[in-house]
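Title: Comparing notes on inverse folding

I've been comparing how different people in this forum approach sequence design from structure. To keep things fair, I'm posting one structure and asking everyone to reply with a full sequence. Here's the target:
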């Protein structure tokens, strides 16, 4: 188990014990850290230092930085290392616009595919999510929210499109679910219109409701990052 202090002072715990796809796990950690300002624009990410903090060898860190370099999140500078590329409001907005489009399409397709018993289970899960939100159990809210979206996406029978959605979700800092104001509330309250459209077998209604939900949480993240002066 690796434990590191975020730049804001909060302790983040992340398991790096599983060697499978270790570089991807490190990349996810750095990617999330960039999104929330743990790694600031212009900062150099020191391979050996980060490897020591995470309790891994330098190799997966180097591989992770190479991957993030191909994504444009960091930039290699000869003899100096990898430097964090500035994150802009447009960057985050574009991320959620793409995510809203894909998630909306998946929901539209799921509207005619979900069985009644699956819809019943979704609503039961949503009831648990709402109770968790009232209890302030944000980890449970995040887990149940994931289950709901995964069920809808799988029901769309569009595996490759769902993979593309996953690429965009990789940039969403889910590890900070509790600290982003409005996220747990959005999961508790935005889903009702999605479920209504799914229950009515209304593809266009499901598309609009899901897209609106994703754009809503995207706007909340932008505001969160602005307040913390993360965005350029």
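Reply #1:
Here's my take.
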């Amino acid at each position: 188990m690796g434990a590191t202090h975020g730049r804001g002072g909060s302790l983040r715990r992340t398991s790096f014990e599983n060697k499978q796809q270790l570089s991807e796990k490190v990349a996810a950690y750095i990617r999330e850290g960039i999104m929330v300002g743990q790694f600031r624009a212009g900062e150099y990410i020191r391979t050996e230092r980060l490897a020591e903090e995470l309790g891994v060898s330098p190799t997966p860190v180097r591989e992770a930085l190479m991957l993030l370099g191909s994504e444009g999140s960091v930039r290699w500078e000869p003899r100096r290392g990898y430097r964090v590329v500035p994150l802009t409001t447009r960057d985050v907005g574009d991320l959620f616009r793409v995510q809203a489009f894909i998630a909306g399409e998946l929901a539209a397709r799921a509207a005619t595919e979900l069985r009644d018993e699956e819809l019943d289970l979704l609503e039961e899960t949503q009831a648990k999510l709402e109770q968790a939100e009232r209890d302030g159990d944000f980890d449970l809210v995040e887990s149940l929210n994931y289950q709901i979206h995964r069920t809808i996406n799988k029901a769309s029978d569009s595996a490759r499109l769902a993979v593309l959605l996953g690429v965009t979700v990789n940039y969403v800092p889910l590890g900070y679910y509790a600290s982003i104001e409005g996220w747990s509330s959005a999961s508790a309250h935005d889903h009702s219109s999605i479920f209504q459209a799914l229950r009515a077998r209304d593809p266009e209604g499901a598309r609009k409701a899901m897209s609106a939900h994703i754009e809503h949480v995207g706007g909340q993240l932008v505001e969160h990052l602005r307040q913390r002066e993360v965005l350029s």
